[in-house]
Structure formats: structure tokens, C-alpha cells
Task: inverse folding
């Protein structure tokens, strides 16, 4: 059961409550390069990204945020470490959320300036605790970034904001070790109604990182934990969006987009099913409709095994068979299998 968290409005995208788990990503362009950043965000928007974050390491990047914001269509988050002046500048520039840890800003007066401006502009703050950058006293106390250490750090930052009567908060507690990450989020979820941004940090390359994220994020989502998510991958951020949708679709949290089911092939397979499945997967990626497409190796078991598919193909001897919900529709020449399947998908 998903625990109902307080609702936070990130530039029109609501997270928490019973809102969908918003899918976000982060640009890997230089934020000062407005064109490159906007182009990447456009590609991410097309892929279904719902919130985008950019790194703001200096004033030039902070000044670019407004220009970027005016040319995109999804909420923009500024990622800031330490420098409160950057936080003030991006809020002036119209950013929709700031990720900054109040405990790292310095004296109280600076924190107050950031919080006052966040209140004035209705900008939520994400506290992003990271296993790699825990405060010294906490690390000394726990020796390593354990779940308890991460939660204590997050609560410390939260306390600073609550003391200033600021509640528009999102928390993330990221660590690369999945069991620790799970424990930390579970612990925080039990004691707080602050919406959670979930993810596994430094998850790895597209292949390894997708597995790690699917396990970590998937486990939390299946327990009803998480209000927004990012799959962090060393690669094109567009891949993060595809992976995020897949994770949510597998758990039945999203019904959008085409899902591919394909058999593992076996001694009955008489066609090059692996290439066909890869080709179909590529071609159905941009489909927004919630359909299930099957690519099966043989006509004997394929249509029956993929009975749940709206449309599918099964390889025969020299021919392909197109089927829908287990019923065979027609035979097509083997070299036209993908083409004919795509035609059927368009008809759906
Ligand atoms: S669908 Fe046919 S080819 Fe694929 S694994 Fe099952 S029996 Fe083998």
C-alpha cells in the first residue's frame, strides 16, 4: 500500500498524494550551453520525461537557467551544491525546484534567504542526501554510509527547513549499495510524510545500471515507496526515461507505451528471432498507446504462450504468422515479418 505523502507542486507536476510516480532525468550537457541543453531536454520530452534537472555549478550556469526554462515544456530543477547565491539566482530565473542541502549552505542567515525566496516564488526544495558526501560528524559516528547514517543526515536537513516553517520539501537518500538504499528509504518512509525522490546513485552503464535501478527502484515501488524517480545511467539520458517507463510498466504503475514480450527461442525456432525482436523493440519505442506486442519463435507454442498480446508474430518454416490474443490472423512471407507486424500495429 502506498503511504500518502504531502503533495508538492513542481512547476505544475504534482508529486506525493496519489499522483503518478513522476519520471525525471538529468541533463549531461554543460548548462551554460543553452542550445545543447535545450536540444537534449527536447529529446527527453519526446521520450516522456516529466521533470528535468540541470547542474548549476556557477553563476553563468545559473543565468542560463532562465533562457533554458523559456524554451522547454517540462518543469526545470536546478542542482546546486553549497553556494546559496546560485540558489537565489536560479529562483530569480524562474526555476521550478532547487536541489540543495540546507545543512551545507553555511550560516543560518544564508539558509533563511534561500528559504524566504523559495516561499516567495513557491519553489520546492529537494534535500538530496548522497552516500558519497555525508557530513563528517555523521560519517564519524556510523563509520560508513549506512541506512541509519543517511536517514539521520536527511532528517538534519529537514529540521533546518521545518524550523523556518518551510514544508515544500522532497527528499532523496541515494547510495550505490542497493540493500542500504532500500533500508534507508524504508526507514525514512516509515517516519515521514515528505515525498520521496527515489533512485540508485552511480548505478553504472546502461546495461548494469538498468538492472541495478530496476531492482532498487522496483523493490521500493512495489512496497508503495517513491513519489518521483530517476534511473541514473552512464549514457544518453533518453535511455533513463525508457528504463523508468519499463520499470513502472512491469509493476503495472503505468499503462502507457508499447511493451514487447518475446520468447527466449529454443530448438524449435527456425527464424532469426533475436534480430527481429531487437528491430521490433526499436520500432515500437516511440508508441505511446498501451499495447503489448509479442515476438515468438514458433507457431506451435508462440500464439498460445503470448495470448495476452494485442498483436504478435510467430516464426514458422519459411513464413511468419501474425496473431492477436492467441488467434492466428494471417501468414506473411518470412522476409516481410517486421514490416507486416508494424502495419498491424499501426491499425490498432
Ligand atoms: S515460443 Fe516456440 S520457439 Fe519460443 S521458446 Fe516457446 S516453444 Fe521455443
Result:
Amino acid at each position: 500500500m502506498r503511504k500518502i505523502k504531502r503533495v508538492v507542486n513542481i512547476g505544475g507536476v504534482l508529486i506525493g498524494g496519489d499522483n503518478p510516480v513522476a519520471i525525471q532525468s538529468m541533463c549531461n550537457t554543460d548548462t551554460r550551453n543553452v542550445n545543447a541543453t535545450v536540444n537534449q531536454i527536447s529529446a527527453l520530452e519526446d521520450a516522456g520525461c516529466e521533470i528535468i534537472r540541470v547542474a548549476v555549478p556557477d553563476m553563468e550556469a545559473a543565468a542560463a537557467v532562465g533562457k533554458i526554462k523559456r524554451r522547454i515544456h517540462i518543469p526545470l530543477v536546478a542542482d546546486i551544491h553549497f553556494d546559496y547565491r546560485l540558489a537565489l539566482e536560479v529562483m530569480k530565473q524562474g526555476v521550478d525546484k532547487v536541489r540543495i542541502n540546507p545543512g551545507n549552505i553555511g550560516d543560518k542567515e544564508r539558509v533563511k534567504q534561500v528559504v524566504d525566496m523559495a516561499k516567495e516564488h513557491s519553489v520546492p526544495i529537494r534535500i538530496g542526501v548522497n552516500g558519497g558526501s555525508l557530513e563528517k560528524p555523521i560519517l564519524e559516528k556510523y563509520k560508513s554510509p549506512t541506512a541509519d547514517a543517511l536517514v539521520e543526515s536527511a532528517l538534519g536537513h529537514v529540521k533546518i527547513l521545518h524550523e523556518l516553517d518551510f514544508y515544500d520539501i522532497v527528499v532523496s537518500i541515494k547510495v550505490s549499495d542497493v540493500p542500504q538504499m532500500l533500508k534507508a528509504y524504508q526507514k525514512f518512509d516509515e517516519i515521514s510524510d515528505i515525498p520521496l525522490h527515489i533512485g540508485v546513485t552511480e548505478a553504472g552503464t546502461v546495461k548494469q545500471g538498468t538492472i541495478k535501478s530496476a531492482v532498487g527502484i522496483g523493490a521500493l515501488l512495489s512496497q508503495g515507496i517513491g513519489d518521483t524517480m530517476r534511473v541514473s545511467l552512464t549514457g544518453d539520458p533518453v535511455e533513463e526515461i525508457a528504463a523508468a517507463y519499463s520499470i513502472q510498466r512491469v509493476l503495472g504503475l503505468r499503462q502507457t507505451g508499447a511493451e514487447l514480450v518475446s520468447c527466449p527461442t529454443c530448438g524449435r525456432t527456425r527464424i532469426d528471432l533475436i534480430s527481429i525482436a531487437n528491430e521490433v523493440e526499436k520500432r515500437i519505442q516511440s508508441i505511446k498507446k498501451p499495447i503489448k506486442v509479442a515476438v515468438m519463435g514458433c507457431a506451435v507454442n508462440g500464439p498460445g504462450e503470448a495470448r495476452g498480446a494485442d498483436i504478435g508474430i510467430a516464426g514458422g518454416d519459411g513464413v511468419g504468422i501474425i496473431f492477436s490474443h492467441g488467434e492466428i490472423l494471417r501468414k506473411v512471407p518470412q522476409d516481410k515479418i517486421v514490416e507486416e507486424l508494424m502495419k498491424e500495429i499501426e491499425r490498432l
About this structure: The chain has two domains: 8-250, 259-347. Residues 263-266, 268-269, 296-298, 301-302, 305 surround iron/sulfur cluster (CB under 6 Å).
